[in-house]
Request: fold
Amino acid sequence: MLEGWLREFLDHLNVERGLAQNTISAYRSDINHFISFTKKGRYEVPNGLRDAVLVYLLELQRAGFTASTVARRLAALKAFFGFLNRVDILSEEPTAELNSPRLIQRLPRVLTVEEVEKILVVPRGVTPAGLRDRAMLELAYATGVRVSELVGLNLESVNFEAGFVRVFGKGARERLVPLGRVAHRCLNDYLARGRPLLSGGSKGPALFVNRRGERLTRQAFWKLLKRYARMGGVSKKLSPHTLRHSFATHLLENGADLRVVQELLGHADISTTQVYTHLTGKRVREVYDQSHPRA
Reply:
């Protein structure tokens, strides 16, 4: 029963809300985890769902899952059961009175400008792959796009004459992001001397391709980012979105307006962007302590 309801919910997310496939997959994974739990506990559906959710959340906490993971899974269940209630499959929401566990805000890891430079200069423009990697890294830092957005770019996504990149983000929302001077040059070099050799004459639409002419994957970009960080002597622990976080932080540190950064990042809610103000606040304090005679 729950599996059938889940299929209806996922269809709703895909067709009516137009969410990205990665987001839909995350919903599917989290809700399936709960469905498996209900089967083991033999909870009655729908009357036993509220008890099932309460015990499920308790079990997650006892198993050592982080508060953010518990909150994410509860949010998925709230969305799922909220949908079932709206379409009259469920008369009551099993999660209606449940609140997310209190989260300790984890600030994203960012690099200094100098550390970013060390990574960006490692790929050498003497091979097709080197030209591609330099262009990808420069574009990621110049635009702050998500990794999924970066590898999802097509040839037509880049407007060299106007100097911007057309990006389709979460929920298929479109935004235009300026293309920096260095990224512009590196992309030109890659398209002229790198992609033709990598693509092998393929007429596919992907901007960044592998040695078989296929679209480069998120995992491939993550591997090359880690490799170039290691080769550049950057020892900080990275995430696939480290360049995105660094892009936002460096803009704010240099006086960019928060609303502009929100637009560039493609955040629907400015509260998501505000996490970076905590990071820049630390930098403000450092400058104050170093500069003020009575600090």
The radius of gyration is 23 Å. The longest helix spans residues 21-41. The chain is about 60% helix and 5% strand.
